Amino acid sequence: MLEGKNILVGVTGGIAAYKAAALVSALVKAGAGVDVLMTRNATRFIAPLTFSTLTGRQVSVDTFARVERYEVEHVSLAKKADLFVIAPATANVLAKMAWGLADDMLTTTLLAARCPKLAAPAMNTGMWDNPATQENLETLRRRGVVLVEPGCGRLACGDEGRGRMAEPEEILEAMEPLLTPHDLEGRTLLVTAGPTRESLDPVRYLTNHSTGRMGYEIARAARNRGAKVVLVTGPSGLKPPAGVEVLPVTSAEEMFRAVSSRMAEADLVVKAAAVADYTPAHVSGEKIKKAPGDLALELRRTTDILGWAGAHKAPDQVVVGFAMETRDLLENARKKLESKKADLIVANSLRTEGAGFGGDTNVVTLISPEGARELPLMSKYQVACRVLDEAAALLKARKR
After folding, report:
1. Contact 286, 312 (CB under 8 A)
2. I need a labelling partner for 147 at 20 to 30 A (CA). Which of 96, 156, 295, 376 fits?
3. What pLDDT is stored for residue 78 in this prediction?
4. What pLDDT sits at residue 56?
5. By the 8 A CB rule, do 55 and 36 touch?
6. 320-347 burial, b if ≥16 CB within 10 A, otherwise e?
7. Who contacts 388 (Cβ-Cβ below 8 Å, separation ≥6)?
8. Which of 115, 152, 157, 385 does the annotation list as catalytic?
9. pTM here?
């Protein structure tokens, strides 16, 4: 989503300015065109040469600096920007933003910019807690400026508390919704992700190899497109996307209860979790001790969550399921589409290179009543976007 975007990065005078270099580097690697503007105080913490080396572009500090071609630089930069990021944003520059002051290159360009704006505050805890700063922050929030809250910890001044600038990866994630069309604004997505664990005893359980990444990327992509997202997740080592409601569960039964309790409010239900089909009929209260010979486990069927969702969906709801297969992919996926009364099945084969559990990529075929469409190898986030494209079209058709 950053490919070909023009990003303005404003760097102000704080010790966290060094983090801005990592942020700019990440933006350039993602394919964005980056222009950096610095306050004079920022140049005391980090040299403009650092940013010009990273971006391949001249760094702007002086409003009246001579440029090679005639144009009003702060206006031209503001016009071409898709997003303006201020990181770090000191208490001083936040106050200028709130009051519309423009007394240097950075704040002059900021005032002229019509693009979305994001600020990552960084300052001493006392400055952050000051009522003047908090009022300025509230003013900026009302005007639509996105604020990436600072973290807590030991500050450069030696104090402990809130004021540390967010990490570059947190800022990058907060940028995503600002660069994505909000075609799912006003919609609610209920998505399941990850594996389930079915207990045998206090020590052991039955599970599978799912990490939850595909479901998490769907949640992230839907959030970026303006949807309210409810993520029902089995045990996963992944960090959930910011800004989504997370319902952690462990077993298939817990996942069913979570889905059935929240489905009525959802416009779109995406069942991306790898749910256990069977669970132990009897769970031992004590560890099952090893004994001579083999051990037989009695298993019973779990609730079919996708089947339940398909049977109970309202006329204006869309239900999407996933099918992981090792053989007869299309045949099994079509059967699943019909038997579960789903609107769309996302099918993939564990035998296909680049697909399956754990990786960052996937190869899927979208199965609907109208036919099948195979997608090439792509990142799981790209797959999530394509799935949501199909689901959004179905929602639009249902509304008509």
Report:
1. no
2. 156
3. 82
4. 93
5. yes
6. bbbbbbeeebbebbbebbeebbbbbbbb
7. 184, 218, 221, 222, 225
8. 157
9. 0.89
Helix-strand-coil percent breakdown of the chain, rounded to 5?
A: 35, 25, 40
Q: What is the largest CA-CA distance in the chain?
A: 88
Task: Please give the angle made by the CA atoms of 138, 119 and 110, to the nearest 5 degrees.
Answer: 95
Q: Is the peptide bond before 168 cis (omega within 30 degrees of 0)?
A: no
Nearest to 384 by CA among 145, 140, 250, 213: 213
Candidates 258, 352, 347; CA nearest to 308 is 258
**Hey, what are 340's tokens?**
């579960």
Structure tokens at 285: 């209260």
- In angstroms, rounded to a whole number, what is the distance separating the alpha carbons of residues 325 and 347? 8
Q: How far apart are CA 341 and CA 263, in angstroms?
A: 15
CB 117 within 8 A of CB 141: no
Report yes or no: 189 and 227 within 8 Å, Cβ to Cβ: yes
Q: Hey, what amino acid is at 282?
A: H
Q: For 373, phi and psi rounded to 5 degrees?
A: -135, 115
Give me the DSSP letters along 106-175: HHHHHHH--S-EEEEE---HHHHHSHHHHHHHHHHHHTT-EE---EEEE-TTS-EEEEEPPPHHHHHHHH
Q: pLDDT-derived band of residue 342, with 50, 70 and 90 as boundaries?
A: very high
Using DSSP's 3-state secondary structure scheme, residue 253 falls into helix
157 has catalytic annotation: yes
| CB within 8 Å of 41: residues ≥ 6 apart | 12, 13
| Residue 37 dihedral angles phi and psi, to the nearest 5° | -120, 135
Say yes or no to pLDDT of 397 above 90: no
Distances in Å between the alpha carbon of 184 and those of 181, 226, 255, 378? 8, 5, 25, 22
Mean model confidence pLDDT for the chain = 92
Q: Give residue for tokens 């190898």.
A: 377
User: What pLDDT does 58 receive?
Assistant: 92
Q: Which helix (H) or strand (E) holds 228?
A: strand 228-233
Q: Please state, in angstroms and rounded to a whole number, the distance separating the CA atoms of residues 137 and 99.
A: 11
